[in-house]
Write a structure and sequence with these properties.
The complex is a heterodimer. Chain A is α+β, with helices and mostly antiparallel strands. Chain A contains 18 helices and 20 strands. In chain A, the strands form six sheets. In chain A, strands 1, 8, 9, 10, 11, 12, 14 and 18 form an eight-stranded mixed sheet that branches. In chain A, strands 4-5-7-6 form a four-stranded antiparallel sheet, covered by helices on one side. In chain A, strand 15, helix 12 and strand 16 form a beta-alpha-beta unit. The two termini of chain A are 16 Å apart. In chain A, 55% of the residues are buried. The chains are: A alpha+beta, B mainly alpha. At the A-B interface, helix 7 and helix 13 of A face helix 2, helix 3, helix 7 and helix 13 of B.
Chain lengths: 521, 320
Amino acid sequence: MSTHDLDRRGFLRGSSAAALGLGMAPMLGSGAMAQPAPQRGGSVRIGHSGGATSDTMDPATYAAGPLVLAMLGGVCNNLVEIDETGAVKPELAESIEPSEDTRTWTVRLRDVTFSNGKPLTAADVIASFNHHRGDGTTSGAKDLLTDVTEIRAEGERTVVFELASGNADFPFVAADYHLVIMPANGDGGLDWQSGIGTGGYTLEEHEPGVRIRLARREDYWKENRAWFDEVTLLTINDPTARQNALVTGEVDIINGVPTSTVHLLERRPGIDIVEVTGSAHYPFPMHCDAAPFDDVNVRLALKHAINREELVEKVLRGHGVVGNDQPIGPAYRFHDASLEQRSYDPDRARHHLREAGLDSLDVTLSTSSAAFSGAVDASVLFQQSAAEAGINLNVQTEPADGYWSNVWLKDPFCAGYWNGRPTEDWMFSMVYAQGANWNETHWQNDRFNTLLREARVELDESKRAAMYAEMQQLCRDDGGAIIPMFANFIDGKAERIQHGTLASNRFLDGWKAIERWWVAA
Amino acid sequence: MRMHPLLTMTLQRLGFGLLTLFAITLLIFFAIELLPGDLAQEVLGQSATPETVAAFRERLGLDQPPVQRYLAWLGGIAQGDLGTSLANGREIAGLLGARLGNTLFLAAYAAAIAVPLALVLGLLAALYRGSWFDRTVNVATLSSISFPEYFVAYILMLLLSVKWGLFPSIADIGPDAGLGTMLYRTFLPALTLVLVVTAHMMRMTRAAIINLLAQPYIEMARLKGASPMRVILRHALPNALAPIINVVALNLAYLVTGVVIVEVVFVYPGLGQLMVDSVTTRDIPLVQACCLVFAGIYILLNLCADLLAIATNPRLMSRR
């Protein structure tokens, strides 16, 4: 059976289609059409990493794991969703319309009900957003919504969002996994405790860190979604146990197949590898305001001293593509493919060191397996390739526990991780803009910041493309992040589970597998 | 009158046990305080901002000084209230209950196989010491204890589950599985634990008995014409019970408290996983509760072992 070949190539093609633009999508959809039409019925068991006994239903604390997969793609809907082409599609919103200056967005809500029979109203949407705003919130999405100054209801089924400054990409924000719509609790707060949503499934059982069980809702409002009758999500954090569970038929779908064993799993009959080139990347951020990284020549020397091809080959084992020191990879709409690819060049690196007035360079790189899988190996390979250029890289391995709170953002040069974001503006504003909380490079580039503000409100696609291209170039040549590689999202599934064109924004079809995949006849 | 010293000792030991528990709570609490980061930072992870961390701390009372938080927790415990988990707000008693049941089930399952197996193998090895049987048993058990647990677990999984399909690779026992299903689904983790703990108990049994076989009274029994089996069962074993019981108790305690790797590999929802998760998120009340349970089990098992060792060996009683 050649479905597997079809999968990999078809989907890699599909994901580049997302980068080319939305117009191409219908043409490339034909690859998926070859498969039998989706059908209802059957149950599925998913083995997923990232679950913990401390998991809670509170969307403010959501992080990658089985709970988010269940809530985002099963129990709840958002105002909009990101479809398989990477475009925004109305979900609970019937329409979402910007004002001329993109500062006011008017959302008309669909006439749907929660699983307990309560109709969806503007108050629920407002509560779901306000849960992540204001002084008292503990939400990981707080930063996303700092620009939102007011959310008000106009009648039962219309919500108006007022932004402090224009944002042509605001609908993408509403698709964020924290911003699932749950019912209001009556006193202005959000009722997340009962786990009720408007999605295709109801939450039947949740034992944190162990098991989540969902059952299909008969009256789901979407026509061609939510095919499984029953879904069980098991937390399986150990990658070997996860693969064995798939091989022995204990589960039908697993996320995060390690690149070191994917070729073995591939050979196994009855099992398909699901792989897409996504936006996830492994950066090495340098603090641009700390010596010696405050000299752009030092940054350029280090950028030329890393062997990208070798990292893709040895750390990702070919399951990824080289990066170009800017975060907008090939999966993005406005990825600039014409930007020259930087490659390993020890002589160039030496040249830049001389420009900086240095003969050799001693720097410490903090790394940890917590940053990304293979981070320590990648750092040591970097050390070797940098030595050729007269750079002495002292690799310091930090404990995985507490890495994100104690090392990342604090050490001037370390290994990091980004899953990527749906839009260029989002990625740049979150990590590269001046004053951003997660500006891990402390980079401040006036031209970049001006372009970022202008591109955000620009509705003309070609102008936007040009602006984002220039920003990618600024990031590559002046920015503080070395971005050597983009990693593929690799999942595994049993042959009996089918899917259409895959979204490239996350693992498991953009975390929507529960709603989009089905059991073959 | 005869039970009296035993009873006094039991009460004394229980008293000391309580003191030990108190000392443990102090140690654990301040050890976790020393760990970098707190619950707010760990839960928010990479997406933490100073404001959200501050709001989180304020809501959970993490901005209070540690001593004050410890005293508040101690006050609750004194009234039998384990409190709620900081991370997900659930009742700790409920969280612990189900998982403690799972842990005890797996430990009992493994012990039910391992303890008789180890005793029988140990006795036979002592009886036929120096023989091929003795050497084979020694090599086999020592090999299985020398491999790390996860390695044993993966090998068993590879052979019995992936290759031959005899047992499930994950021990996921739904909420209402029957005893038969539970025994079947948890066979591989139980077998892993059996392989890990058998060697220790078997070697101790063998050594304790061989040690006694050199004693004059055993020689006397032999000279009287008792069969080797009878010499060991009747004359040597009762006197060797004390060290054997102690080793068995230690291994039982290990089966309850030290199986987190087996739990992770076989996806078994036990206490170990709960404790590791709670340490990772710095969920202090939950860590404390887990530690109290673990420490309590250690103390009780040790007490039982000592009582049994004394009760089975009158010489220990008379010496006091």
